[in-house]
C-alpha cells in the first residue's frame, strides 16, 4: 500500500478500519482537554470502559453475599479464574487446560523454574538474550545460585553482532547446538522489551528441544501483540503479565502456559498449594495433593478475584475483536507509523534511527541522536505519551485496539515541530 503523510489519508485509513469502533471502548487520559496519543500500551494498556462493571460486580456480591459469594455469586469466585483460560488459550495458541491465571509474572517464572529447571552436574546451563528485562535476569541469577551454581558459568547470553541492533536467529541456534547436552533451559523474551524484536519462537524451540533442553518464553511483550502457537510449537512453558497489551490494569495477574504433556502428573517438581488440588476433593481438606489435570495445578493460593475481574472484562473485548484482526491492523498501523517517522526524518534532516528489526509486533524503538530527552519532554507536554529508555531511546507502541491512523499522523506533526524548535 502506498502511504501518504496527510490528515486526509490517515482519516481515510481510519474510515476503512474494521476495528475502528473499539477505540471507543477504552478510556483515554486527557492533556490540554484532548485525548492523548497513547504509545505506551506496551507498558500499561488503557482501561476498557467495561472493566469497572466487572469490578463493581465483585464488590456488590461481596457486600450482599459475603462468604457465600464463593459459590453463589453470579460468577462464583472459587472457579472465577477458569473463565479466563478459554479466551487466553486462543490468544497464546494453547489448549484451555494448558493455561491458568495466578500471581504476577516474575513470581510465576520462579514457580515454573521449580518445574522446568532441574540442573545436574552435566546439564545446568541456561541460554537467554543479552540485556533481558532486568527482572528476568535477577530471577535467573537467583535460581541458578539457589541450585548451587555460579551465574557467570551457567547463564549464557546471546549477544547482538557488533554494530547491529537485533539478534540473529542463526546465532541463537548455533549457541544452542554448541552448548548441546550441557543445556538445561532456554528462556527468552518472545518480544524483546527494548528493541521490539519478535524472536523466531518456533525454530528456537525446535532447536532447543533437539538438544534435550527445556524451553520457556516470557511473553510479557508478545501476548495480545503477535501470533503465538505455543502448543503447536512444542513450547514447554510460558508466562506473561496482563497489564501491557492485555489491558487488565496496573500490576495485574499473570498467565501461565504449561504444555499438556506435563499435566496430570505427580512425578513432577512443583510448589503446591490447595488451589492446585482437585476441586472435587479440595474442601475435604485431605492431606494428599491430587493435581488438577490442567495448568491450574500450579495455582497455589485462591486467586485475587478483584484482580481477575478487569482481566476478564478485557478478555471479553479480545473475544469480540479476535487476535487475527488485531494482528492485521497492527501490521498496517505500525507500518504507517514507520512511514510517518521516515517522512519526519527527511523533513528535519535525519536526527533519529529506528532500531526495531522487520521481525516486530506493534512497537518501534527510535534512537534519537542528539537532544533526545528534550524531545521526549516536548512530546509529553503536547499530549503524546511515549516512554523513554536510557541512553537515548523512545519506544512507540501504537496498540491496534485503540490507536488510530490519525494518531500516527498527528504524532508526526508534533514530533516535527518539536525537533525543529530545538
Ligand atoms: C513487564 C515485564 C516484566 C514485569 O514483571 P512483573 O513481575 O509483572 O513486575 C517482567 N519481564 C518482562 C520481560 C517484562 O516485559
TrEMBL record:
The keyword Zinc does not apply. Catalyzes the cleavage of L-kynurenine (L-Kyn) and L-3-hydroxykynurenine (L-3OHKyn) into anthranilic acid (AA) and 3-hydroxyanthranilic acid (3-OHAA), respectively. Its EC number is 3.7.1.3. NCBIfam families: kynureninase (TIGR01814). Pathway: Amino-acid degradation; L-kynurenine degradation; L-alanine and anthranilate from L-kynurenine: step 1/1; Cofactor biosynthesis; NAD(+) biosynthesis; quinolinate from L-kynurenine: step 2/3. It comes from Croceivirga thetidis. Homodimer. GO terms for molecular function: kynureninase activity. Belongs to the kynureninase family. The gene is kynU. PANTHER family: KYNURENINASE (PTHR14084). This is Kynureninase. InterPro entries: Kynureninase, PyrdxlP-dep_Trfase, PyrdxlP-dep_Trfase_major, PyrdxlP-dep_Trfase_small. SUPFAM superfamilies: PLP-dependent transferases. It is an enzyme of class 3 (hydrolase).
Amino acid at each position: 500500500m502506498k502511504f501518504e503523510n496527510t490528515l486526509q489519508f490517515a482519516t481515510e485509513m481510519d474510515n476503512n478500519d474494521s476495528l475502528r469502533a473499539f477505540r471507543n471502548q477504552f478510556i483515554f487520559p486527557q492533556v490540554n482537554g484532548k485525548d492523548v496519543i497513547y504509545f505506551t500500551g506496551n507498558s500499561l494498556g488503557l482501561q476498557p470502559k467495561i472493566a469497572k462493571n466487572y469490578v463493581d460486580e465483585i464488590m456488590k456480591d461481596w457486600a450482599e453475599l459475603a462468604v457465600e459469594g464463593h459459590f453463589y455469586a453470579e460468577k462464583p469466585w472459587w472457579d472465577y479464574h477458569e473463565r479466563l483460560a478459554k479466551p487466553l488459550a486462543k490468544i497464546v495458541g494453547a489448549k484451555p487446560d494448558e493455561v491458568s491465571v495466578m500471581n504476577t509474572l516474575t513470581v510465576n517464572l520462579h514457580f515454573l523454574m521449580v518445574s522446568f529447571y532441574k540442573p545436574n552436574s552435566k546439564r545446568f546451563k541456561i541460554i537467554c538474550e543479552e540485556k533481558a528485562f532486568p527482572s528476568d535476569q535477577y530471577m535467573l541469577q537467583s535460581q541458578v545460585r539457589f541450585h548451587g551454581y555460579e551465574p557467570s558459568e551457567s547463564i549464557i547470553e546471546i549477544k547482538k553482532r557488533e554494530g547491529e541492533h537485533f539478534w540473529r536467529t542463526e546465532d541463537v541456534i548455533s549457541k544452542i547446538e554448541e552448548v548441546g547436552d550441557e543445556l538445561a533451559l532456554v528462556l527468552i523474551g518472545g518480544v524483546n522489551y527494548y528493541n521490539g524484536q519478535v524472536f523466531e519462537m518456533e525454530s528456537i524451540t525446535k532447536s532447543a528441544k533437539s538438544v534435550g533442553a527445556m524451553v520457556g518464553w516470557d511473553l510479557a511483550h508478545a501476548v495480545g501483540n503477535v501470533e503465538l502457537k505455543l502448543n503447536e510449537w512444542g513450547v514447554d512453558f510460558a508466562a506473561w503479565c496482563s497489564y501491557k497489551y492485555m489491558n487488565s490494569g496496573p500490576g495485574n495477574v499473570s498467565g501461565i502456559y504449561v504444555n499438556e504433556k506435563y499435566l496430570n502428573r505427580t512425578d513432577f517438581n512443583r510448589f503446591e498449594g490447595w488451589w492446585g488440588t482437585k476441586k472435587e476433593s479440595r474442601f475435604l481438606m485431605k492431606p494428599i495433593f491430587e493435581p488438577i489435570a490442567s495448568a491450574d495445578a500450579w495455582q497455589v493460593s485462591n486467586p485475587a478475584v478483584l484482580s481477575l475481574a478487569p482481566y476478564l472484562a478485557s478478555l471479553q473485548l479480545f473475544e469480540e475483536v479476535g487476535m487475527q484482526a488485531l494482528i492485521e491492523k497492527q501490521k498496517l498501523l505500525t507500518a504507517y507509523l514507520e512511514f510517518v517517522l521516515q517522512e519526519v526524518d527527511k523533513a528535519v534532516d535525519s536526527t533519529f534511527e529506528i532500531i526495531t528489526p522487520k521481525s516486530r509486533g506493534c512497537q518501534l524503538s527510535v534512537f534519537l541522536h542528539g537532544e533526545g530527552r528534550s524531545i521526549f519532554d516536548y512530546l509529553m507536554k503536547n499530549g503524546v505519551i511515549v516512554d523513554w529508555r536510557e541512553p537515548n531511546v523512545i519506544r512507540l507502541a501504537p496498540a491496534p485496539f485503540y490507536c488510530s491512523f490519525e494518531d500516527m499522523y498527528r504524532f508526526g506533526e508534533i514530533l516535527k515541530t518539536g525537533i525543529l524548535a530545538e
